[in-house]
From TrEMBL:
Classification via PANTHER family: POLYSACCHARIDE EXPORT PROTEIN GFCE-RELATED
Coiled-coil ranges per UniProt: 335-362
Family annotation (InterPro entries): HH_AprE-like, Poly_export, Poly_export_N
Ranges for domain AprE-like long alpha-helical hairpin: 182-359
Top-level taxon of the source organism: Bacteria
Organism: Rhizobium grahamii
The protein's name in its UniProt record: Sugar ABC transporter substrate-binding protein
Amino acid sequence: MKDCFIESRAGRKRALQSGIMLVAGLTGVLLSSSIASADDYRLGVMDKLKIRVAEWQTADGTIRDWSVVSGDYTVGPSGSISIPFVGDMPASGKTTDAIAQEIGVALQKQFALKDRPSASVELSEYRPVYLSGDVEKPGEYPFAPNLSVVKAVSLAGGLRRADAGQRFARDFINAKGDAVVYMADRARLLVKQARLKAEAADQESFETPKELQDKPEAKALVASETALMKSRKKRLTLQLQALDDLRALLQSEVETLGKKTETQSRQLQLATEDRDKVEDLAEKGLALSARKMAAEQRAADIEATLLDIDTNSLKAKQDISKANQDEITLRNDWDAQLAQELQSTEAQLDELDLKLQTSNSLMSEALTQSTDAARFDNTSGAASIAYSIIREVDGKPQEIPVQENTALQPGDLIKVTAGLYMR
């Protein structure tokens, strides 16, 4: 009996020691997880947890250690952790406190326990962050509290540097020189395109293209194209006016010839009547043959004059028709020329856009091969280091622009892009 009492006391002592150790462990858990719980940290895939479970047995005042359940766990790809006697338990999106309560409830229900087991869940290791883009060593890196973008980039060896033997300056200057020429040509073509569209719409002026409104060289380009537009418009107007004047002159000639025709027609009628009278007298022997011949000659002359007038009138009408056709041809040629020039201008713009893309890509590539890219700046272009993170928001990945000092969260993917933007 005494041995049993001693054994019982020893067991209680061990249980009490175990309880003290468990309480100490719980205190350590609270301290180590304060960062996560303070921010109400939500678990995610690849987070690692340390779980401890114990049960206070009221009947005999002892603590039972659930060593089978206690251990290290990792949130799997499905977002769950697999716990003995409980099975798969969803963990992604939940806090450690919530997981601890669910474990206790699940064990109590599974074994129909009077006292609910007490579970503690410690976040032993955060899920990693990932770096991609223009860094020396892209890849997966462990997360730590207060990790910022610039700290993460330093873990990856910093920005990508040029390999030995590369001539960044030469490559950049060559590409930049081409880009400057292409930009100047493109600005000129954009203004020309605006002028051609205005001419095609029969407008008196055109506005500066939106892309060039803030460019200092736009005013001179617009002034030059406006002067050309006015000159072309004046030339076309003079040509059309000349055709209008010619038609008016010919129309006046037709009207004059018409009046002459009326006059000559009356003269012909009188000459014909006189000729007929002379012929009657000649047949009766009362008129001389010379008079008869003179009357016939006069009538013939008037008929010839009428024929000439009709011929001239017909020619004038043909010239009017030709003037009308010349106006139609002039307008059609004008429209065709505008359409051809506009098509050619747009084709040149497309070609320049491709060349600019190539030059900008070459400049960006040259810049990303050098850490000097972040400090490069001049009047025509500037290099920049852009940071963004891809983070899961409401269950969906979302890309968010960030700065160097932006605080990261576990699981973030940091994208580092060294690029070039033209001013």
